[in-house]
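User: What would this chain look like folded?
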Amino acid sequence: MADPGAPVTVVEVAVRSTDMDADGVVNNAVFFMYFEQARLAHLRRLGVKWRPGAFAIAATQGRFLAPVAYPETLAVRAWTTRVGRTSFELAYEAVRTSDGVRVAEGSSVQVWLDGDGQAAPLPEAVRRALESSLSSRA
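Assistant: Here's the prediction, encoded as structure tokens.
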């Protein structure tokens, strides 16, 4: 769960019928697309500028806590949990808007890349923006 005082970005995601799997619930892999929407919105909100290929996703994880089905709407939250020399970590949670139940949580590690695709130090402006939004998970 997000730290209540931390800068958290929230995006509203409408579950689509195509997000469902054969069991009639949102497929677990789809949550990573929801997290991606929140990640990009969070970086834009912080004013982080990046070129295509500026960073790569080095690791992701997810925990799926409750089923979700069409036509539900989710509030997907993203916040910064760690800023390193060449990488940063974001955390996520997805909450059903109809009842406030947390249905999924996760995290991702992004590595900044130079023009040759090698890990590179975060640009100072990116580092400052991310550090200004640091939060701890509760």
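The chain has a mean pLDDT of 93. If you want, I can go into more detail on any region.
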